[in-house]
Amino acid sequence: PLKMETLLMKESPLLLPLNKQKTVYDGFITVQVGLLGAGMQVISLSLFACFCSLKRLQRSSDLGSFILELKTVLEVALKNRPDHVTIPPPQYYSQLIAELESLGWDKLLFIDTEFCTLRLKGVDSSGHEHVLTVKLKPKYPFEAPEYTADLPVPFSVTWTLQSTLAHIHKRFLAELEGLAEFWSVLDEIDVQTWVLEPEKPSRADTMRRIAIGNNVSIKVEIDPRHPRMLPDCCLLGAEHGGNPDCGVLQNLKDVLEIEFPSPATHEKSSLSTECGICYSFRLESAIPDQVCNDPRCGQPFHQACLYEWLRGLPTSRQSFNTVFGECPYCSKPITVKTAVHKQ
């Protein structure tokens, strides 16, 4: 009996005896389902699980009949399920509980009834709350989880067998801090302008369409990794927008509230439209579209010229598709995105 009890606990650790005689048990057994041939379902039960129904183990004079009856019940129940679900082993649940206790239950916002989908809370330095959804797989931790988060950039974690929920959450908090400046820039836009789109922006949105006049707006796209850089902009307006009694140039002046330089007021040389590196205006089809942000300099460059120049400097550094360095003219900080070379 002692040997049988030991084996029973090893095979089905979620079964507990309810009486001293150990003839009545309560708990759960694991049933594995496979598909063979034309949809036939085969149920394999451990030797000692065959003694158990889902709720009770009672004395039986005919063990063979009991096993056949139990198999029949389980086959019918599993055959009626819409899809096959792999049930994790008991160790999966014990490890998950231990990891949640280590992480802190206050970080857990939600967990489904199958203990597979979790939502973890993260708070950034500005006090904004963010949610990370983690979907665990039946072979966790031997199989990496899946992650989804309300972020403007993809979230990923380098997964190893030593990784835990605490490691995932720590990496999530680091990502939030890295995006703090990006959200600060967007918060400023949301508070100080009329944002037309999106109406209810999420923390993953990088675009804002801002009203700047009657039937006229500007769409800006903020780079999450470099939010202080001049954003990509696009003017939007209805065909009937502006003053129909004025020409296009006057409407642009009114909307932008500027006076355009003209041959009557400025020398072309004073506009410095040539690239400060190759000293030409057109480089194949490209024009100088990168400008030093220092108002005392403002020198324009071709993207390809500036990219190659900065790459050749030992003091420059590259992060993702952006190179950071010094302006060739004034030595002030300047950045350029990776140039696209034609093959």
UniProtKB/TrEMBL annotation:
Pfam families: FANCL_C, FANCL_d1, FANCL_d2, FANCL_d3. InterPro entries: Fancl, FANCL_C, FANCL_d2, FANCL_d3, FANCL_d3_sf, FancL_WD-rpt_cont_dom, UBQ-conjugating_enzyme/RWD, Znf_RING. It comes from the Eukaryota. GO terms for biological process: interstrand cross-link repair; protein monoubiquitination. GO terms for molecular function: ubiquitin protein ligase activity; zinc ion binding. PROSITE patterns: ZF_RING_2. This is RING-type domain-containing protein. It comes from Denticeps clupeoides (denticle herring).
